[in-house]
């Protein structure tokens, strides 16, 4: 009997110990950038539970593409902007218990004075009105890439739906209709800047406004427009007036779902508790305060309307019907290959001496990915014949200027040109940036393109940014300069250049193809 | 000695750990179960819509009274009667959500000892207050003389959708664009499957046959094409309906018990919704409709006792009053008062489903 008692006590102790350990859960979430504002609310819960939570932000389509990979995603939970991307890509049914947290219509925010000038204040506005304004050259807008971010995809699908003239849903044959293609292509001519992230696009708007560049309009979530306007008011800038296209918008359902990596019942319990916390009345109220919609939450929960910019989360919006998965996939290819505004891209490749061996190999591999249509199209960043590409290999000087359109032959030529380059010599990325900008500004019909310079380098450069920035300020268009870094590159010089030109730097050290996909989303 | 030393030790452990909640954990451990009662364990597959019912502690307790404990795993109704991967696990019972599945199980070579419909839930249309008001104006919704519930002329609605009518043509000015109704994917989920049968029969003017399918299948398929992206499960679609509201999900197909269960799961929430100013969830009973029957397919003789338990007044009462499931004949167990604001309709017009062969042919056409 004493022996039994001992074992009983030991077992009981073990049970108690297990109960204590359960609070030290490590939990990771990959989410769309629009949820950054909700991170503190989640962190409060993690702290209360004694759990360590980590957050990663990716475009909703990237989250979907991650689910599609055989290895799947590393995180314990996904929180994309819409469950459509889980339906579309999660063929292995890795995500469980996917639950909507809030509803987020994607709408058009138009600078208030511009909205007044267009006669849109206090009136229902249809997609055809937006089209007319774009065609007349009276409206340009910011919109994320439809092949990377849910808000861009939503705006794009709403444009397609509208172009069909109120048909109930987009069907495969509709995408071959020349009238539909022409209408949507004309609408997308209104894109002035793009990005792979809705949150970044909103930051770009505020940041540019604070520097004196005020864009006309932006497609984004209703709640993100509220965040943006709160910031614009703080810096004394005019708000974006909310246009809810009357012929239907796409509504993201912001679902949180669990991915079971077999890390034990504690992790899954943490997830279900987190879900219950997010659905509790007090937290729902805080979520609604960010401008998110919680249908059935009632007026007690919904954020107060702000009539000065037409914000009303209680206003009924008709949502477009999402098409079948195969149609969505075809629509995304169509966007990338035909309808999006063509890219005008100057690629500066660093072939200086420090790139020898590993760097050079990485650069050649990057070129292989970029200029092999089958590879690029797997992740929806393929070029089209309407795109125009410059490749400028550089060391202390620009070695050569290669130029091609984005058709298969052009890409093959660029690939061969790059293959002939080998590392050697000094480094001056500013010299390359200057020539790249000259090439871009000298292009005919410049306004038809979305221009960008992308510099790939392993770090420190000689030369100075001053001459380039002078030239940049005097250029007829604002050309963002993106950076992609190799290895343990010193990012500071690239970061300054990106900051000055409203762009950003991507780390290609781990996943160069991923960095390129990210950069292409902004171009 | 009746109690072994080990059992006594475990009993003590139970007392020691009860304060930490460890007791329940132990009870769930299969290797300890035998010491805490002498129950028969039955393993089988069930449709997901019955998961909450079988997980209900009152139901577990009542089944326990019959000496039963279930290992009921969720599977799609269609796959549980057809997939070798599931059938090879030697389930002792199957509990799908449509009577046709009994035929399909037989075709798959399942040795059926007995089968009996235990629960029923009519296929209904979930919508919102303003839609009901509009459809009353346009005559598509009428109030049943007996029972006072809202019944929908589904054939007229389907005709309007096929004719490309807008919501405003149907008296609903709040919504823009074409009228639409959305169900789950008939190839994966039972509520969509049953709705497909109902649509085909309505288009055919009679319970559909192969001949009628050849003649009217295109119309049925046009209805489903107009839905676009379809959910894989009834539970998911209902969640989308609740989360999306009037603008995103104006009309969806579901089971009658889903709203009842949702309301009962959080009565305070339900009261708030009823008292709020926004559009409220509403049930429309299609006239005619089809019944989603839930036949218990008995494979192992040990399951006879489960059939007896599930058809007992206690469990039938729990099925209705806590989960909104009706009894074997579509009647309501116990008192028929409204629960959670849902008034049980006395449904008079019920269509049988087309035969399994017709349904399979329809699904194949939709797939292709």
For the structure shown, list the relevant keywords:
A: 523 residues; D-Maltodextrin-Binding Protein, domain 2; Rossmann fold; 3 domains; 6-stranded mixed beta sheet; 20 helices; 17 strands; globular; B: 368 residues; alpha/beta; 18 helices; 9 strands; disordered N terminus
Describe the structure.
The complex is a heterodimer of chains A (523) and B (368). With 523 residues, chain A is an alpha/beta fold. Chain A has 3 domains: 2-101 and 255-289, Periplasmic binding protein-like II (D-Maltodextrin-Binding Protein, domain 2, 3-Layer(aba) Sandwich); 104-252 and 306-331, Periplasmic binding protein-like II (D-Maltodextrin-Binding Protein, domain 2, 3-Layer(aba) Sandwich); 342-520, 3-Layer(aba) Sandwich (Rossmann fold), CATH 3.40.50. Helix content of chain A is 42%, strand content 16%. Chain A has 20 helices and 17 strands. Chain A has helices at 2-21, 39-49, 60-68, 84-89, 112-117, 127-135, 150-163, 178-188, 198-211, 222-234, 265-278, 281-289, 325-339, 358-370, 373-378, 408-419, 429-441, 466-474, 492-500, 512-520, and strands at residues 26-31, 52-57, 77-79, 95-100, 104-111, 141-142, 191-193, 217-221, 240-243, 251-252, 255-259, 343-350, 388-394, 402-405, 450-457, 481-485, 505-507. In chain B, strands 1, 2, 3, 4, 5, 6, 7, 8 and 9 form a 9-stranded mixed beta sheet that branches. In chain B, a hairpin with a 6-residue loop joins strand 5 and strand 6 (150-152). Chain B is an alpha/beta fold. The N and C termini of chain B lie far apart (67 Å). Chain B has 18 helices and 9 strands. Chain B has a domain at 122-291 and 344-367: D-Maltodextrin-Binding Protein, domain 2 (3-Layer(aba) Sandwich), CATH 3.40.190.10. Chains A and B meet through helix 1, strand 4 and helix 13 of A and helix 1, helix 13 and helix 15 of B.
